[in-house]
Design brief:
Layout (H helix, E strand, L loop, with lengths): L3 E4 L9 H13 L7 H5 L6 H11 L7 H19 L6 H10 L4 E5 L3 H10 L8 E4 L11 H9 L7 E5 L2 H9 L3 E4 L16 E2 L13
Parallel strand pairs: 1-2, 1-4, 2-3, 4-5, 5-6
Helix pairs in contact: 1-4, 3-4, 4-6
Length: 215
């Protein structure tokens, strides 16, 4: 029996994945690394510190600290969100429907807490969420399931009583590892990814969300 729903944020609530790619490409240029959009997809769903570690291991730099680069990327992300952020199709109706039915709702994202807060504020949807969880406070980010396990704990439910909505392979793996039911709403380039086929269901957008997914 599904007792709670946990939403990923980037790519599920807001179409921020393009902003991440822009921010990463521009900011990594400052440490001498030329990333392509295809490169950025390799770390989709990771925490930003893990993205930075990933590229540092391959192309170490010495003109900026990892933390300085992280802050620069997040600052740019917040600027994009505040200027252009919009909820993805079906998000508001789905949140309202769940809220009307009394289903607890939370966010569990790889993004840092200050970016999550900026998104929820920019979209004016803070009121829908019972808990807001960031993997930045966990020892490991996705695909490790810690952020989902602890989010469920904060909602006083078991992970296996949760429905998790995710868009990335790393997120789907994390959700399944937590023993929750996972629904995938992937970006177009991940729709045929084999990991997505392991989800309970795959939707084109949250416009397709329906109550049968909770049963």
């Amino acid at each position: 029996m599904i007792k709670a729903v946990i939403f990923d944020m980037d790519g599920i609530i807001i179409n921020s994945e393009p902003y991440w790619r822009i921010a990463e490409i521009e900011c990594f240029q400052k440490v001498g690394i030329s990333l392509t959009e295809e490169d950025c997809l390799k770390t989709l769903g990771y925490r930003i510190d893990e993205v930075i570690d990933f590229w540092y291991q391959q192309f170490p730099w010495d003109n900026m600290s990892k933390k300085e680069l992280e802050v620069m990327i997040i600052d740019q992300m917040i600027s994009h969100v505040e200027k252009d952020g919009e909820a993805l199709p079906g998000v508001i109706p789905t949140l309202q429907n769940l809220k009307d039915k009394g289903v607890p709702i939370s966010v569990a994202s790889s993004s840092p807490k200050r970016l999550i807060s900026s998104v929820l504020n920019a979209l004016n949807i803070e009121r829908f969420f019972d808990e807001v969880c960031s993997a930045e406070s966990e020892e490991y980010g996705k695909p490790h399931p810690a952020v989902f396990i602890n989010c469920a704990k904060k909602m006083n439910v078991k992970p296996e009583e949760c429905l998790i909505i995710e868009d990335s392979p790393a997120g789907v793996i994390a959700g399944l590892a937590s023993k929750a039911r996972v629904v995938a709403v992937p970006e177009p380039h991940f729709r045929s990814h084999p990991v997505m086929k392991t989800a309970y269901a795959q939707l084109d957008s949250l416009n397709d969300f329906n109550e049968s997914l909770l049963n």
